[in-house]
Amino acid sequence: MKYKITVFTPTYNRLNLLKRLYQSLLAQTEKAFEWIIIDDESTDGTDNWIDTVISNSPFPIKYEKQKHGGKHRAINKGVVISDCEYFFIVDSDDWLPDNAIEIVLSWIGELGDSKKIAAVAGICINPNNQTIGGVGKLENNKYVEVNNLKRYCNHLMGDKAEVYKTDLLRKFPFPEYEDEYFVTERLIWDRIADAGYTIRWYNTPIYIAEYQAGGLSNSGANQTEGHLNNYNGYLEFIKQSIKIMDPLEAVSYFREYNKVACLKKKSLRVRANEIGLNTAYYCYYLCLKMPIYYIGRIILKIRLRLQEMNMLL
Fold it and tell me: Best label site of 50, 140, 190, 250, fewest CB within 10 Å?
């Protein structure tokens, strides 16, 4: 294994943005990585451009096409063809700071032979150098080590830049349902966490994110319309979430599921059966847990507002 890290990029008609990402990879202070690109049937000349750069690139490039299948299928394909120990997903509309790979390699070097650490992770920043989401409560001023299910208890909100062990992603593939083209990545990140694996989270930026109007973050794929169109994958996520998430967080996902299932005209009994609950327990969620969840949110907003007012006094 010559290289330690696979930089993995799924793409679809993003040639100009892909060129920007490539320039950031060329600028890396450490080039001990390979770049895998899975192309979801682009029609903008991506394949021709790859042909022009692949032979002169200072790092190996693997380029494959897939019939329109979505990001989750691309990840499944990418981990199969990866020759590296770690897998760094970098979307085509984003790019890396010049020292990102060097930083990640230093973190990996500190892991030793730890079997229960699934990934190392840094923070994402936007093009204006502003942190996206929250920053973690660090241990020894260096990192915090918790699993993906506990990240929010440690202020690790929002998108983060995780670099997972490739073997684990092979062990926990994304489900692929016919005629469905989106599965939330959290399904697998939480599944890995539930299996007992942690992540070392650092407060160092290693990823620059620029959300595009047509990108997954803004496309609605992870909202009601997307859930309706990718129902089986969504259902798998909800069933898992109710079993393994913090109860309060699970209720928030249950609320959205109930809305989606009602739009699909599912009966109460069917809704309960689909997510592995009996009808009585489903009603308990619906009539008691959801109202408590809403009351809790209102109380939290009031507390935050009072804190803001006290700070102004």
Answer: 140
pTM of the predicted protein model: 0.90
- CATH class, domain 5-213, is alpha beta
The predicted model gives 37-43 an average pLDDT of 96
Closest CA to 212 of 7, 16, 25: 16
CA distance 46 to 133: 32
Q: Give the residue-averaged pLDDT of 72-90.
A: 98
Work out the average pLDDT over 278-291: 90
Domain boundaries, the chain: 5-213, 224-312
Q: Percent of the chain at pLDDT above 90?
A: 75
Which residues have CB under 8 Å from 222's CB, separation 6+?
182, 184, 216
| Amino acid found at 159 | D
